[in-house]
Design brief:
Elements (H helix, E strand, L loop, with lengths): L2 E4 L5 H13 L5 E6 L7 H9 L3 E4 L5 H8 L4 E5 L7 H15 L3 E7 L9 H4 L8 H15 L3 E7 L3 H6 L11 E4 L11 H12 L7 E5 L7 H12 L4 E4 L2 H10 L20 H12 L9 H6 L6 H5 L11
Parallel strand pairs: 1-2, 1-4, 2-3, 4-5, 5-6, 6-8, 7-9
Helix pairs in contact: 1-8, 3-4, 4-6, 10-11
């Protein structure tokens, strides 16, 4: 009876991965789903999982003892990168050590595009992580830890989410004077639906991919931010301006309004988004530097479903699109 442990089921990726893993599971598969706090999970969701024989428990990447307890006897463990920028490699080290102690055979991880810049060749592995764009840096370090662990592994490198453009970035446009201040410079990116990333993760957990393989998870087409902007505004009727700026111009404008450089200790209370300066800049840089141009078939290969296009995915966010007063 194979045992699979999926951590972080309270998040957007983890919850989808949990449901999809159960959907494609074999009759004798056993599952443990964990969250940092069960009280934060919808009661109906937890009850539904338990009704299907799932053990639901609390575990925390910062508490190795809690991880070792739920990992005992597991064939595979899946963990999801957190929002704790700079602290994620330490959290990963805790997960890996707990998995090894518990006798886990295989580990799965949600990484990010760009991590290959520090891992996909011997030359890349010698590269100073500080020379890699900001957002992949923690993922480069974590992938290195996984590869050095001696465990079998599966890694997915997700592109930036379509969902963030609709539900996150758009919330700053009114604050910016009815403008999207942008630094992608007209380059295209194959943004991916978070929903597809979650299903891929569930598929990797239950063994739909050979061990020691890495997949790039993309949407079905490469589009510009201007196309996303124009589409959302065509739906909402919002009148706004798309502004292309340099990284320095964008950083200066936001710093003058108090956006911090530190995601952990910064004060976001008077700002429209909780995104530090390096994070904000790097989202555009990853597109502008061409890291998200490639379209892959990984979603369909691993889940049997074609990836969602942004128009289809955005239907769930239409009520969030900005509108003129």
């Amino acid at each position: 009876m194979p045992k699979f442990v999926l951590t972080g089921v309270g998040g957007g990726i983890g919850g989808i991965a949990a449901d999809y893993a159960l959907e494609i599971a074999k009759p004798d598969d056993k599952f443990v789903f964990t969250s940092t706090s069960l009280s934060k999970l919808p009661a109906g969701k937890v009850d539904g999982w338990k009704a299907k024989g799932v053990e639901v428990a609390e575990a925390n990447y910062d508490d190795p003892a809690s991880l070792a307890k739920v990992f005992e006897g597991a064939d595979a463990v899946a963990f999801i990168s957190t929002w704790a920028l700079g602290q994620r490699p330490k959290q990963a080290a805790n997960v890996i050590e707990a998995a090894k102690t518990a006798g886990v055979k295989r580990i799965c991880y949600t990484s990010f595009i760009g991590a290959g810049l520090g891992n996909d060749s011997e030359e890349a592995r010698q590269r100073d992580v500080a020379t890699i764009p900001f957002l992949p840096q923690d993922h480069v370090k974590t992938e290195r830890l996984i590869r050095a662990s001696g465990l079998d592994w599966n890694i997915q490198r997700d592109y930036l989410y379509q969902d963030n453009c609709a539900a996150f970035f758009s919330q700053s446009w009114k604050y910016c004077g009815d403008r999207w201040l942008n630094n992608t410079h007209g380059k295209r990116g194959a943004y991916v639906a978070r929903e597809d990333c979650g299903r891929v993760f569930g598929a990797l957990l239950v063994g739909r991919a050979p061990p020691n393989t890495c997949y790039t998870i993309t949407g079905p087409e490469a589009v510009t931010d201007r196309e996303l902007f124009d589409y959302m505004n065509s739906v909402s009727g919002y009148k706004a301006e798309f502004v292309d700026w340099t990284d320095d111009e964008l950083a200066t404008w936001w710093r003058e309004r108090g956006l911090p450089d530190d995601a952990i200790n910064g004060d976001f209370s008077k700002l429209p988004m909780k995104l530090c300066i390096p994070d904000l800049l790097c989202c555009g840089q990853m597109v502008a530097e061409g890291h998200m141009e490639e379209v892959t078939d990984a979603v369909e290969k691993l889940t049997g479903r074609k990836p969602l296009g942004f128009k289809e995915n955005f239907t769930k966010y239409e009520q969030l699109f900005p509108r003129n007063d």
